[in-house]
Structures are given as structure tokens and as C-alpha cells.
Write a structure and sequence with these properties.
Blueprint lengths: L7 H21 L6 E5 L1 H5 L9 H9 L6 E5 L5 H7 L3 E3 L9 H15 L3 E3 L9 H11 L3 H14 L3 E5 L3 H9 L1 E4 L2 E4 L2 E4 L1 H6 L11 H14 L4 E4 L6 H14 L3 E5 L1 E2 L14 E2 L2 H14 L6 E6 L7 H14 L4 E4 L7 H13 L5 E3 L9 H7 L3 E4 L2 H20 L12 H7 L5
Parallel strand pairs: 1-2, 3-4, 5-8, 5-16, 8-9, 9-10, 10-13, 13-14, 14-15, 15-16
Antiparallel strand pairs: 6-7, 11-12
């Protein structure tokens, strides 16, 4: 079980297992244990949202329930590894898995017990009127605390790959990102968090992308996003500014519940990286940028907040050697992750960097932003060693196209009838906003 939110249905299952164990003890005169296979965060995140409590917290709760003798980790969704290890007399599971995607897991249990020549599957009737899914939806509707949101990114990095992060520039775009999902081969795929882009934040305000929007203004937007969502957010801080200012920015970002900040190793007036050497851009020296990272790490209060160092070496055609040198220097200065960027149309130099970096470092999180090299999938980037994939500006870019088309259409037809097919219905947009209907 996941046992994130314990309810009467769980207790009923455990009580039945306990009674079975007692019957065996009476008949066989031997000790019989109730063992719970507790799904790890990684196992849970492979098919649904990350649990509210981490594995150790959930384990402490379950092992203190009176009907439980032992708790062991279940590393994958399949019950087979634990069943083969324990060779139980009984496997107890609610009958709610007879239908739907869990039916495959159920059949695997039946086949495994048959292969072992031992063990019986007991399936108590599903407890009516209570559901973990509904409890989770109710909890999600209430919201999430600042500290809980802040810690989510680190937990997600440890639990799954890749993390898919989508740019959001206001509360409405964040709601769309939070609710978007697809089902592939029985697996629910959704965005794991939000990206607050300096480019889209400034563009949505009609200002140039030159760090013209101050931190306070951007934090107001993020607070509006946080009021209606529950997922973690990564903040684009451009260069981070002066070292002294960056330390204060870290405190401000951490205070509102932002999970991570990304700063790039450039100096001077902000220029968009995808312009490359077409405009004057100067990369910071390694020592100075390392000092900035250290200052940020000293300023933060929690251990959950992350500072991620963005490397511009490939953007500025300085090569893999320079990029790798900086990556290890930034990591050793305290950076919690590395972002590597490229403006090439294919992902070859990104893949080359990932291969070289992963041969020396298997654990430091790596972030990539496939804006230019957009033909490679998130799954392929994850297989190459990337942890976080950020889709950095697509939401605003697509909104601009749609709104321009609608505005032009109203003028051309002198009415709105012809463009209605391009618009979301009033009912749909009202249903998207919690509490409207």
C-alpha cells in the first residue's frame, strides 16, 4: 500500500490480515506475521502524484498500527519481488483492483503464487464511502503549505525522471499546466511543476527581457500562482545580480515557497541566450560565479531550497571543455544542480555534455531546456542523464498567436461569431477556476 492518508479501508484490510495470521498461529503453533509492502516514493511517483509524506514518515505511521508486525519497502509497482522473497501464506488486497489498470498487477500476483506453489490471494470487498483518491483531491483543493511546496522539487528529483516543468506567466497559465495530463500505456504523464521565466514575465508586461521587471513585481505574480496551485516552482533569476543582492533574493524566494532558483554565469545587461554571439554577451569568470553560488547557499535557511547554476559555454561557442570545467567548479562551490544550454537545432552537444558529466558525476541533478533542439523527447533526455526538462516559453508564445488571430478575426468580420471556434467556451473557462461553479 501507499498509506499516505490512512483511512478505515486500510484498517479493514490490516484487520483481516491480522485475523488470518492469528488463525495460522492457533493451527500451526508458529509465529505468523502481518507484513506490509510499503510503496516507496519512487514507485508511487511512477504512476501518480508524489505522496504528501515521504517513505520514512509513512513507514513510521504504518509500523505503529496495532495490526502490523513488519513494514518492508516495495520498490516497484509489481508485488512479485516481495512475494518471491517472503513466500507468504496469504496475500491480502482489496477487490478494487479486479478492474482497471491494476488488474494486470493482480494477475501477476496470481501467476506468481501459482508458480511458487504456495500462497492464497484474499480479496476483501472494497470499503464503500471512502477513497484515497477522493481524500487526496479534497486535500489538494485545500492547498499546500509553503514548506511542503518548497520541499517538493528535491523529493521529485529523487523519486522520478524526467521531471517535466512548464513555463507559467500568470495564475491561469499555471492552472492549465497543473491540470494538463495524458495517459500513455496506462501511465499518467503530467507536468511536475512550473517555470517562472524572466523572458515571459517581462514580455507579458510588454517590457524587454533585460531584467527590467523587479523581484517584488515577479513575486506578486508567483503568489497569485501559488494561491490556486500545489506544484513546485523554479525561478529564473537571470544572472542573479550582484552577489550582495543575490543573497537577499534567495531569502525572498525561499520565504514564499519557491523550490529552486537558476542563475546564469553571465555579466552585464541581460541578453537572451538564444541570440548567442549575435549580440555582445560576456561570461562571468569562474571564481566570481562560484563566490555568488556560495553567498546564495549561505543565505538560505532551509536545506530544501536549491540553487542551480546555468552554464553558457555552449551558447557562446566556448566548447565542452570549458562547460565541464565550470560544471564541476560550480558543483564544488555548493550548486545543487547544473543547467546546460544550447542554441543548436539538434541535441548532439547537449548529449555529449551529459555523457561526459555523468561519467564523472552520477548524482548531481542536470537541467536542460530544449527550446532550440525541440525534436528530442523528455524521455530520451532523461535516458541520457538529464533530471529536469524545462519547456521555458511555449505557453506565452502560443497565447500570443491565438490572441493575435482572434483580435484580427474580430476586426476582419466586424463581429466575433467567426472566431468562436478558436475560443474556449465560457462554461469551460469557468469550470477551470476553482470555486467559480
Amino acid at each position: 500500500m501507499s498509506a499516505d492518508l490512512i483511512h478505515p479501508g486500510h484498517i479493514n484490510i490490516l484487520k483481516i490480515a491480522h485475523n488470518l495470521a492469528k488463525d495460522i498461529e492457533k493451527k500451526e503453533k508458529i509465529k505468523c506475521e502481518v507484513i506490509v509492502g510499503l510503496l516507496t516514493d519512487k514507485a508511487i511517483a511512477s504512476y501518480k502524484r508524489l505522496p504528501y509524506m515521504n517513505y520514512n514518515q509513512r513507514k513510521e505511521v504504518v509500523e505503529n498500527l496495532k495490526f502490523v508486525d513488519k513494514v518492508i519497502p516495495q520498490e516497484v509497482l509489481s508485488y512479485e519481488p516481495n512475494i518471491r522473497k517472503i513466500k507468504p501464506d496469504f496475500v491480502v488486497h482489496g477487490d478494487d483492483w479486479k478492474h482497471g489498470r491494476q488488474s494486470i498487477t493482480r494477475q501477476n500476483v496470481i501467476d506468481t503464487l501459482k508458480d511458487l506453489g504456495k500462497g492464497e490471494l484474499i480479496e476483501p470487498h472494497y470499503t464503500e464511502g471512502i477513497s484515497s483518491t477522493q481524500l487526496n483531491e479534497n486535500a489538494r483543493a485545500i492547498g499546500i503549505t509553503t514548506n511542503a511546496r518548497l520541499s517538493l522539487l528535491r523529493r521529485l528529483i529523487n523519486a522520478k525522471a524526467p521531471l517535466r516543468i512548464l513555463e507559467t506567466h500568470n495564475a491561469l497559465s499555471a492552472l492549465i499546466a497543473q491540470n494538463a495530463s495524458v495517459n500513455k500505456n496506462g501511465e499518467k504523464i503530467e507536468f511536475d511543476g512550473f517555470w517562472s521565466s524572466s523572458l515571459t514575465d517581462s514580455t507579458s508586461r510588454g517590457k524587454p527581457d533585460i531584467e527590467a521587471v523587479e523581484l517584488t513585481s515577479r513575486l506578486n505574480t508567483i503568489n497569485e500562482i501559488f494561491e490556486v496551485t500545489t506544484k513546485p516552482l523554479i525561478y529564473d533569476a537571470d544572472t542573479g545580480g550582484k552577489i550582495e543582492h543575490f543573497a537577499f533574493s534567495v531569502r525572498s524566494l525561499e520565504r514564499v515557497g519557491i523550490s529552486a532558483v537558476i542563475i546564469e554565469d553571465k555579466t552585464g545587461l541581460k541578453k537572451n541566450s538564444l541570440l548567442g554571439n549575435d549580440v555582445a554577451q560576456e561570461q562571468d569568470c569562474v571564481k566570481s560565479f562560484c563566490d555568488k553560488i556560495r553567498a546564495g547557499k549561505l543565505a538560505q535557511i532551509t536545506t530544501d531550497f536549491m540553487i542551480i547554476a546555468r552554464i553558457e559555454s555552449l551558447i557562446l561557442n566556448k566548447g565542452q571543455k570549458d562547460a565541464l570545467h565550470r560544471a564541476f567548479a560550480y558543483r564544488d562551490s555548493g550548486a545543487d544542480g547544473i543547467m546546460i544550454h544550447s542554441r543548436h537545432k539538434d541535441a548532439s552537444e547537449i548529449l555529449e555534455f551529459l555523457d561526459a558529466f555523468r561519467r564523472a558525476d552520477s548524482s548531481t541533478p542536470v537541467v536542460v531546456v530544449p527550446t532550440s533542439f525541440n525534436d528530442i523527447t523528455a524521455s530520451n533526455l532523461a535516458n541520457a542523464g538529464a533530471n529536469i526538462i524545462i519547456y521555458a516559453n511555449q505557453m506565452l508564445r502560443s497565447a500570443f498567436v491565438a490572441m493575435s488571430s482572434v483580435a484580427q478575426g474580430i476586426l476582419e468580420h466586424d463581429r466575433s461569431k467567426e472566431i468562436e471556434s478558436k475560443c474556449m467556451s465560457i462554461k469551460q473557462i469557468l469550470s477551470l477556476i476553482p470555486g467559480t461553479i
